[in-house]
Amino acid sequence: MTFRSVFDAAFIRTEFDQAGINTQFIPSIWKYVVQNPNCEWREIPSLPSAAYSLLSSKFKPCTSVVDSVLDSIDQVTTKLLIKLQNGASVEAVIMRYDTRLGKYGGKPRPGGPRSTLCISSQVGCKMGCTFCATGSMGFKSNLSTGEIVEQLVHASRLSPIRNVVFMGMGEPLNNYNALVEAIRVMTAFPFQLSPKKITVSTVGIIHAINKLHGDLQNINLAVSLHAPVQDIRCQIMPAARAFPLEKLMNSLAEYQKKSQQKIFIEYIMLDGVNDEEQHAHQLGRLLDTFEVVINLIPFNPIGTLSKFGTSGDEKVTKFQTILRSSYNIRTTVRKQMGQDISGACGQLVINLPNKKSPTLTDIEDLHL
């Protein structure tokens, strides 16, 4: 018999309702499981007897297990290989950083030590982005709500998590219902993450973007744009053919009008492909009427899979300068973490490689 994760919120609520058990017990069950990793159901205090029977017959505290934990040499980044109940595996990455090491408005930034968790939403990915290791796997399966939340559960036992970014394996908006439900669990008791500390990244699934704000208010939206014109997007992101750039930008304009929030734009720098000065000007004109933060991402080589080169520092700096000075668009450069353990952007593919990651300046904790 296949057991369900106790964090599969809709399923456990339905089961409790059908059994006549008050669903208000569910958050306290979640809290106990988070605090007691190897608990037995009978150990949870003050539940109705029917709840113990139901939990024992249909649920597990966690359906996934941490198969391995790999730390970068400097201990800044930790990659978790998580084995699912069906035998498949996904990866989650903890990134630790101190915001006081960065600058904002020419002054040291406030804050202190923080941890961000990069979460996977699928096993593999349908999008097939040519610069991404996960895309080389193809699509295997969607994760359930519980399997998504369990990544936070496992990571929380290693580090207090303040931010969550859905930038791991998979296209989050292609697993829409599980994503929405998982975020609702994460922002409720006992996790109580602020929606403003959760970022969902997408290649631009237009129909999902159109309903996202109605289902999840105050979260951050990050769009993997990666090119300023449709033909280049299609070359490096096959899924872009289904989501024409003009229609995507119209969808983002409507999203921004409803949400009144800045949108994060992710832009991977591929040498000679999308990193020339003309591309910077095209990108600036494309985003001129939007409130955005652009995050330039140095390309992470993915071994024999890669046909791309990494843009030189001078090119990246020039690209950033054009966007800032000519278009007054706030533009950051992502400092990579976890490259030595294949835990950096675009490197999440199931393997166990060999082990320093510099200070992070990333989108999930910017002052907007």
Automatic annotation (TrEMBL):
It comes from the Eukaryota. CDD domains: Radical_SAM. GO terms for molecular function: 4 iron, 4 sulfur cluster binding; metal ion binding; RNA methyltransferase activity. GO terms for cellular component: cytoplasm. Residues 111-340 form the Radical SAM core domain. GO terms for biological process: rRNA base methylation; tRNA methylation. It is found in: Cytoplasm. InterPro entries: Aldolase_TIM, Methyltransferase_A, rRNA_lsu_MTrfase_RlmN/Cfr, rSAM, rSAM_sf. The keyword Translocase does not apply. Its cofactor is [4Fe-4S] cluster. The keyword Transferase applies. Keywords: 4Fe-4S, Cytoplasm, Iron, Iron-sulfur, Metal-binding, Methyltransferase, S-adenosyl-L-methionine, Transferase. This is Radical SAM core domain-containing protein.
